[in-house]
Design goal:
By secondary structure, the protein is α/β, with parallel strands linked by helices. The protein has helices at about 20, 45-55, 90-105, 110-125, 140-150, 175-190, 210-220, 235-245, 250-255, 275-285, 295-300, 305-310, 330-345, 350-365, 390-395, 405-415, and strands at about 5-15, 25-35, 40-45, 60-70, 70-75, 130-135, 155-160, 160, 195-200, 225-230, 265-270, 290, 315-320, 380-385, 420-425, 425-430. It is built from 16 helices and 16 strands. It binds guanine and zinc ion.
Length: about 450
Amino acid sequence: MPPATLHLGQTLSFAGDPFALGPTAARHERRGAVLVENGLISQTGPADVLGAQHPDAAVVDHGEGLILPGFVDAHAHYPQTAMIASWGKRLIDWLNSYTFPEEMRFADPAYARDIAERYLDILLSHGTTTVCSYCTIHPASADALFEAAKARGMRVFAGKTCMDRDTAPDGLRDTAQSAYDDSKALLARWHGQGRAEYVITPRFSPTSTPEQLEALGALWAENPDCLMQTHLSEQLDEIAWVKSLYPAARDYLDTYEAYGLLGSRGLYGHAIHLDPRETDRLREADAALVHCPTSNTFIGSGLFDMAGLTAAGQRVGLATDTGGGSSFSMLRTMAAAYEIGQLRGTPLHPSALLWLATQGSANALHAEDRIGNLAPGLEADMVVLDLASTPAIAQRHAQAADIWEAVFPTIMMGDDRAVAATYVAGEKVLRPGDQGLD
Ligand code: GUN
Ligand code: ZN
């Protein structure tokens, strides 16, 4: 048996959802401990109690560091890594000018492998241990991401993006049949292999024909334990475009609903400009809405109604949406969610922001029994934050009266410099110069 490892530091975990229960849903230990055995968390609690119970455990003392569950990014496009921060366009122009040309480069599997590895290393350096990513239309782009995740031991959700309409450019289209066949083959190859989870991925209804949506709806019905991800009501121009392409649909959501693409394992990115029928149907289906705040400000999409939607009981996750999002960091993403909340008159408490970036996103991915919290039985994916990582943050942190004042400057002003360590299934992610001793 490999030895148990006892991680000591401040710990923050969740006994429930802060949107429903308030900040007391979060449990903070000033001097806490997380016991890790065989890649899983076996116990959490006060450091003195666990230390006395496990005198033989190897000890890693993170000092004042804050141990959190690893961040979970519930919607991203790894193929857009190299074109993040592209200037000046709104959604449809941005897709045509920057996104599609870059995604075409993934016809070369070697390029896909290079970006997949680069991308996951960037995520880990930002404390993100799980992502749910789109790939490109090329099946090898999904293989590349799953291979890179396997090499790093990461729990990754991903799927081949499907687009068969002539609204997508030449070279970046599949067909209804090939999308079904390729998705099915990838699903058989990867879903449930180690920590890989396959996600059925129609990009959005403007780039699919009804035949393709129907084929992917059928594939989902044949594999109901899989997730399905797509985009919904991100920009007003996009909604008008959907209306022109699907004149018989009652609304944007109906273009998915009509083809079997609405369900509780469905992930709907953005979901900003929703009609009442759409919010009702999404809630009845217990579908997950994924808030992408840095993307929504960067591409100029609008202000997601976090307060209203969570109060109505919608399942909500948080995501970067890179490269539409302007940062790989879930800290920066929480800050943007806070700012959008402020613009709507509903600021989010730090406990709610941290919950969204961990357990909330895990919940959106139906993975809360495996990741997203510090609790016995969960996989030991963890991030350790330095709450005084820069002089500007440190001087504000020095005035903090409680854990929320202590962590909020890092949420608002932190970046990868705040990530003191990342652990994947109990293993420390090594950086250049690390000795690998803990
Ligand atoms: N809608 C369809 N595709 C995309 C994409 O790649 N990024 C964003 N932000 N929205 C989309
Ligand atoms: Zn997206």
